[in-house]
Structures are given as structure tokens and as C-alpha cells.
Amino acid sequence: MIVLWPHIRRRFTHVFSLLPLVALAALGGCKGGILAFPGTANESLSGPSLYSVSGVAIDGPISGGSVAVAQYQSDGSVVPLGTVTTGRDGAFQITSLFDLSGGPVSFTLTGGSNIDIASGATVNTPTGVSLMTLIPASDLTHSTVVLTPFASLEATEAQALASSQGLSMDQALSKARTDWNGFLGFDPAEVPPSNLANGPASANASGIYGLLLAGLSQFTNHIGQTQSLAPGTANPLGILPLLEQDLQDGVFNGLAPGNPTPLTYYGYTLSGETLRQEVTAEALVFLWSGQNQSGLTPMTTDGILNGVAMNTGPLFPPSPSPALPDPGTPSVTISSPTSGIFVNKSISVTASATDSLGIATLIVSGNGLVLPGGTLSGNPIITEVDTTQSPSGPASITATATDFAGNTQTTTTLFTIDNVAPTISGLSPANGGIYAPGCTGNPVNVTVTGTLQDNLSGPSNIQVQETSPTNTGISVLYTPVNPSTSTFSFTFVAPPNSCKTANYAFTINGYDTVHNETTLSYTLGVTN
């Protein structure tokens, strides 16, 4: 924000003559904060005038930093205009003589510290590292000066263009501003970014700017995690000098001019995708993190981030072609239960998901299966579920994975819950009846038939055990059930008994295919 003071037409050679005027303003010799002198109200601007210029330094707000202000002259020299220290919120304001018809004004920050957006660690601005912003002098009346890594890269391009192509600084800055507007959709030197770790933000230029800064922080934090570094060790201000080296030839290709060896930062190799796919991908990761307090989501920002990632402007080489930050949908697998099976009692529910960028959420829901808490979440998901809390019959579980770009993929497994025991019926000879084949004085083979009925997983087999007496030739007998008719049979031997009736008792256990069990006591009198 700019506060315009009265136009005191002076050359830099007469700076000291202005000191009494400044003192007069401080003592109240003005009205409404505007110095008023006869004969100046309608005069046109010419030469340096006294202005208050406001700005902000953000990589996380940079507090305690020293901002040196200077203005380019027509001969390429630079005239220093003063220094100011940033406050706790990164803001600063400086009052000095600015020539609105002169060359660009530079704002260079050194020192200070900030809270890294992604890691939350305190980061001191490294020695020898600075943030620079170049602003057209005419913009000082209506713009807030912004110092960020992106603004510094825009200034780096302008300086490189002026040096390599012999352009004036005004011409070089105009070209750089066009390039960065084409890349980001806004000028990083004049749009105050939102702090997404500090509260709500909108999906406008300020919000997207804040998101890209968060993505750069998340990106360097990821590099640090890969190398097992302490939080904040890898940070945007640390990688900035390498990005500035990369841009010296006007193109982000991961190479310093004249050097075929790729630039690296803690094991990461810079490339043309660093500020496109890599940073936008990590911006999506940030949106799912606990640090994001903005309310922005992939659904409200991924179209804009995709545009940044796919940019083919002059800041990037023509090949390889750019790639989306998260080019595909997740892959989702349900390992257990498998589709088409019958389950009962306690079962294992296992699901997992993968994605080229990462999985934000994996949620398993049940239809006909009661899950603990209603749904399961995590990645992978491995848990035991008690099916007896659910009705027997058809059921399914659905796993839905969402990646950091908001792409979703769903898979469903169908199965049947069977906690119902089968039933034994149709016994012949009848249970509790008398079987009298005639007195032959010889042992008699007695065959018992019946039906084992199960309407879910289906009947499997029966187990027959004689309980009284113990001389029929059956101790424990397993016999399968006919899968087509559900019938079974077993045979025991009744010894001669002088044509008297002897009672035989058995325990019949019936099993379905998932081992649900039913038990029936069977007795039969045999006259032999």
C-alpha cells in the first residue's frame, strides 16, 4: 500500500534541502497528512518525490529482516534510498524519495527469520541469501511490494536479461513480468499472498500465490524428509540460490549456464519440472495437511494448479513435455474378503491404495456389513470385523481412495454372510421310531437317510457318533452330503438280540461349507 506525499520537486542533489519539510510535517505543518505549499498542488510530477511505500516479505512471514531500497538510473547505476526492518508479520514501510518517472526500484531483504509453512520450524535466512523484488517506479503509487522466492526469481530473470541481452532494466523487467504473469497468472512482485497456515483464503490470485508458496515449502520439506534431515533444514530460501543459478540463462532446465552437471539440493536434482509439476504436486499435498487452515481444497484449486504445471511458456524448455501434478487416479485393492465367497464369525478386512503422488484418504464402507465406527480409514486398512453383528445374507464392502489432487477411485467386493446353522430333517427311519426287519438271528445293517438343508453357503457333511450302546461299528463317522439333493446316509450294524428291541442313540452334527454347525440327537429301536 502506498501513501502519497506532496510532490516536492527536487533532484537527488538537493536531498538535504527537504529535511526541514519532513520536520515540518512531523510538527504538524500540514493538513490531513499532506504537505501543502503554494504553487505545487497542480504541478505535474517531475524528478524525485517523497513517498511512503509499504510491502511484505513472505516465505512464511519474514520478521526482523533488513530491506534495502534502491532505484535504477538511466545509465544503469543504482541509487540507494534507505533501509527498513520487517515486523513480526513480515510487513515493512519506508518513506524516501522515489522518482516515479525513473527506473525500477529494487527491494532486497537479508537476514531475519520465518516459520517454515510446511514443517513449522523456525528458519533463519541463510547468510549470503537474499530476496529481491523489482518494481516499476510508476507502480509505487498503487501496489504493495511483495518479497517472496517467486518475486526474487522474477527479479533474477530481469537482471539476467539486462546483462545478457543489453536491455535497459525497464525493458528487462517488462519482459520478466510478462513471463511470470504467463506462468503464474499474476505478478509475484505485486500480489500479496495469503498465509494458508494462518486462516481462510480464497481461490483468487492471493490464495493461489499462498498455495504455491506452501507447495514450495512442502516440496523442500519432502526433500528434507527423504534425507532424514531435521525439520526446516531443507527450505525454500535454501533452494532459492540454485533456482536463481538455473534461471541465469532464462530457462528452468536444472542447469547453470555453461555447466552440464545438473544442480542438486540435498540429493534432489533440479529440472524443468521443479517449479511446475513438483511444486504444484506438493501444493496438493499441503492442502491435505494439518498446516492448511485456508479452507482451500483440491476441488477448488486443482484446475489452476494444473494450468501452472502444464505451462509451456518461455521460462521452460520445449522438452520434455510438462506433466500434471497428479496425472492418474489411485489404484485400490481389497485383499480380504475376496469377491464371491461366504464368510461368517470374525473376518479380516484388508484394503490398500497407491497413487503416483500419494493417497490422501482411503475409506472402507459396508453394505450389509456393520463396521466398527461405521467406516474404516487409513492406508492400508487391516482390521477384524465380527460378522455376527450383521444379518446373514448378501453384503459388500466398498473402498474409496482419494489422491492429493482429489481424484478418486472406488472398488467393491461382494460376498455373503452366513452365520445360520443348517437344519437336519427327513430322517428315515424316523427319529425315535422302531425298525423291525424281522428276526433272522443275524446282525442287521441299518441305513439311516436324511437331508441337511442350508440356504446360504450350502450343506457340506455330517458327523455321526454313537452314544449308546457302543457296539454298532460306529465310533465317529464323517459322511458327505450330496450337493445336488442335500441328502446324506449312514449305516450301522445292529447285532442279534433274540428278537427283542434294542435302542440305539446317536449324535448327528451337520455342517455347512463355512462350518456353521447344527446338532441332533437321534434314537432308533431295532428289533432283531
Short description:
The chain is α+β, with helices and mostly antiparallel strands. Helix content is 19%, strand content 34%.
Describe what this molecule looks like in 3D:
- With 528 residues, the chain is of the alpha+beta class.
- The protein contains seven helices and 28 strands.
- It is rod-shaped and about 140 Å long.
- Residues 1-45 have low confidence and may be disordered.
Portion of residues in beta strands equals 25-35%
Helix coverage percent:
10-25%
The major pleated sheet works out as: 5 strands, mixed
Order of strands, main sheet, comes to 14-20-19-16-17
Q: Helix/strand/pairing class, anyone?
A: alpha+beta
Strands, total number: 28
Large-scale geometry: rod-shaped
Number of helices: 7
> Gap between N and C termini, in Å?
114 Å
Layout of helices and strands:
Blueprint: E1 2-4, H1 19-26, E2 49-57, E3 66-72, E4 78-85, E5 91-98, E6 105-110, E7 113-115, E8 122-124, E9 131-135, E10 145-147, H2 149-165, H3 169-184, H4 205-226, H5 236-246, E11 264-265, E12 268-269, H6 274-287, H7 298-309, E13 331-336, E14 342-343, E15 346-354, E16 359-367, E17 375-377, E18 381-386, E19 393-403, E20 408-417, E21 423-428, E22 434-435, E23 444-453, E24 459-468, E25 476-480, E26 487-494, E27 501-512, E28 517-527
Parallel strand pairs: 2-10, 14-20, 22-28
Antiparallel strand pairs: 1-2, 2-5, 3-4, 3-6, 6-9, 7-8, 11-12, 13-15, 15-18, 16-17, 16-19, 19-20, 21-23, 23-26, 24-25, 24-27, 27-28
Helix pairs in contact: 2-3, 2-5, 4-6, 6-7
Comma- or semicolon-separated keywords:
19% helix; 528 residues; 28 strands; 5-stranded mixed beta sheet; alpha+beta; rod-shaped; single chain
